[in-house]
UniProtKB/TrEMBL annotation:
Key word Transmembrane helix present: yes
Protein name (record): Cbb3-type cytochrome oxidase assembly protein CcoS
Transmembrane segments: 6-23
Keyword set includes Transmembrane helix: yes
InterPro entries the UniProt entry points to: Cyt_oxidase_maturation_cbb3
Name of one Pfam family that matches: FixS
Protein keywords: Membrane, Transmembrane, Transmembrane helix
Lineage: Bacteria, Pseudomonadati, Pseudomonadota, Betaproteobacteria, Burkholderiales
């Protein structure tokens, strides 16, 4: 029973820290574009890369 006097306030503090981290990330734009990175993978460029100047062609 005595452990609850420690664990309940500690869990409330952990929840408030998690909420603060979430809202800080949300305010900084962390979750603005959730679809773009997934679509960027599908738009793969299959053309061969150009050789660097001074490098012989493959």
């Amino acid at each position: 029973m005595e452990a609850l006097y420690l664990l309940i306030p500690l869990s409330v503090v952990v929840v408030f820290i998690a909420l603060w981290v979430y809202f800080t990330a949300s305010d900084s734009g962390q979750f603005d574009d959730l679809v773009g990175p997934g679509l960027r993978v599908l738009q793969d460029d299959d053309t061969p890369a150009k050789p660097a100047p001074g490098e012989p062609p493959a």
